[in-house]
Amino acid sequence: MVASVEAALASGGLSPGQRLPTVRDLAASLGLSPATVASAYRDLRSRGLVVGEGRRGTRVRDRPPLRFVAPVSAPPGTRDLASGNPDPALLPDLAAAARRAAARQAPGLEPAGPRRGARQGRPSGASLGHPPQPRPLPRLYGAPALLPELADLAREHLAADGIDPAHLAVVSGALDGVERALAAWLRPGDAVVVEDPGYAYIFDLLATMGLRGVPAAMDEEGLVPGALAHALAGGARAVIATPRAQNPTGAAWTATRASELAAVVSRFPDTLLIEDDHAGPVAGSAALTLGPRARWATVRSVSKSLGPDLRLALMAGDQTTISRVAGRQALGPGWVSHHLQEMVATLWSDPATQALLTRAETAYAEKRRALVAALGRQGIPSTGRSGLNVWVPVPAEHPVVAGLLERGWAVSPGERFRLASRPGVRVTVSTLQPQEADRLAADLSACLRAPPARSA
Fold first, then answer.
1. What CATH number does domain 79-87+353-449 carry, 3.40.190.80, 3.30.750.44, 3.40.50.2300, 3.90.1150.10?
2. Using CA atoms, how far apart are residues 189 and 45, in angstroms rounded to an integer?
3. Which spans in 268-427 are helix H?
4. What is the C-alpha separation between 398 and 410, in angstroms, rounded?
């Protein structure tokens, strides 16, 4: 029965949000005992495919992990403020970085010999006057999972931000690191404190792992200490927190807030703390941490700063957590591509790249401030202290999203990012020019003033 439900989800025979028959009705139609059907439903829930709603029954999750979820995209002719991407103009040239990384591996490289199958006597590139192109040296089995040169740079960066770099792992992006840290300690059914509003894929990940997300309220300085304390007191075994560039709200910890949150988590020493520092050096606010502690991990991705296609993040944590993450990784993918690691090490060592990251941090801050100020002049509250996004609370999301789309702006409805919090829309400011902020704010104000559409 479980396999048939999975097949229906994968093929589209069952749709997100669709109601499933009650346990008794399905048992009767299949000739099975209610206990057997109930057990199958529990299995489906633990794998994040369906949601139980008490007396209202069971329905397919809105984003079941067996279906391809199309990325958010803006319709042709509209400004894309919805997808969450960094500005391509503020990302380094990865092709050039790959060439530099190859040259670093083999300085003074001799020209490559003739290719297999090449015609004898045909002039080589070198004889035609072209310099030999460096080729990356192959990395074979037995190489360290974390390249020493990248480890040295990571330790330097993390230590400068007050994060203990004694134990490190390299993972395939921030979400991969979060998943591996959770899997190191938790089991299906465990509760995890999450930010609300929070990152939609964190919610999806927890459901897929059979974990239960417990929402904790946010403000512009991050998790509210009282809300975190209440959630942890209910027995949560982990908390996922974003120190800066929080998605979707742009919240960032202050030193005072970090101290308050540290005092809360210190009362729960066996709770796993995961800090998701996904924006890193382009966040526009200082890096703060609540660790180290008995069980902790800080994940720092390069996707927002160096490019989403560099699926790489560094993870620091306690010895047991990092050991478990690295051990489990060794039995699966084995390691993150050494060529990716070499590219990141090359970029981190490049003064021109560091200057570009500084420009990106400044540009994103200017864009956020311009929009928040323009919205304020329209009497519209918003948050956006750091990162690439500004969060705008609204009475109803879809009329605002539709109204802005008619005016040429694509923004993201907040429902994907909410569990129990109030409605809002997320505006990604990475490509929004400061001079466009007043027009967007005026258009959003007009959408909020528009009378609600009457139903037929």
1. 3.90.1150.10
2. 10
3. 303-306, 319-330, 338-348, 351-377, 397-406
4. 12
| Cβ neighbours of 241 (radius 10 Å) | 24
What was the pLDDT predicted at 85?
A: 95
The letter for the amino acid at 160 is: A
Q: Which of 301, 324, 11 is nearest to 175 (CA)?
A: 301
Residue 333 CB: number of other CB atoms within 10 A?
12
For 449, the token pair is 């003033």
Task: Give SS3 for 435.
Answer: helix
Instruction: Enter the CATH code of domain 148-349.
Output: 3.40.640.10
Which residues are registered as beta bridge partners of 316? Answer: 168, 298
Tokens at residue 80, please? Answer: 């894309």
Which residues have C-beta within 8 Å of that of residue 236, sequence separation ≥ 6?
190, 191, 192, 193, 214, 271
15 or 150: whose pLDDT is higher? 150
298: helix, coil or strand? strand
- Give the residue from 305, 333, 332, 329 showing the smallest Cα distance to 315: 329
Q: Alpha-carbon dihedral of residues 200, 204, 210, 213, nearest 10 degrees?
A: 10
* pLDDT, position 448: 96
Tens-digit pLDDT profile for residues 243-302:
999 999 999 999 999 999 999 999 999 999 999 999 999 999 999 999 899 999 999 999
